[in-house]
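EI: anyone free to look at a 203-residue chain?
SC: sure, send it
EI:
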Amino acid sequence: MEDSPITPLPAVDDPIELLQTWRADAAREETQDPTAACLATVGENGAPAARMVLVKAIDASGLVFYTNTESRKGRELKGNPKAALVMHWPVLGRQVRVEGTAVLVSDEEADRYFASRPRGSQISAWASAQSSVLPGGLEELSQQFEDTLEQFSGRPVDRPPHWTGYRITVDRIEFWRHRDDRLHERLRFVRTRNGWQHDRLAP
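SC: here you go
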């Protein structure tokens, strides 16, 4: 990892473009899934909860991941759509923090992505009541999978009504880059009425 500045502030107008560049770099260099991100939500009691998700799209409108809306994260996002994402690429010595609001993607967008998934993943979306208790353990889950497999035998698997995508619209985003001297670089963007305000932060 090099101790060199990231893109100079005057040249950075759009943090989403910088994020896309960093993610493309990660896709080439990282040994782990570069789409992985830690998603934090907040429950009714005000306590945070975090878990890993896969960010499948990044564009000007936000960052998209897909999940079961009846899962814990789905229920929490329904009650409080504020969320945070962290992407960490250790080989590159880079991290990105995103804060924003989760909104559901359109049915058309969810349908397109679901149709692109492997058939086994499509079956699992129906078979697993995500975050629910399994009294029968893994045997129960395996049986649910086999039953669902038989149900869709010989025909396409439709997207379950409880399975869709969320788009995190970005209100704040911070880029972090490692330095061996611990003077890590932090570049923060905050959305304003007039566009993006950016600042360097002390490590």
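EI: The chain has a mean pLDDT of 93.
SC: 👍
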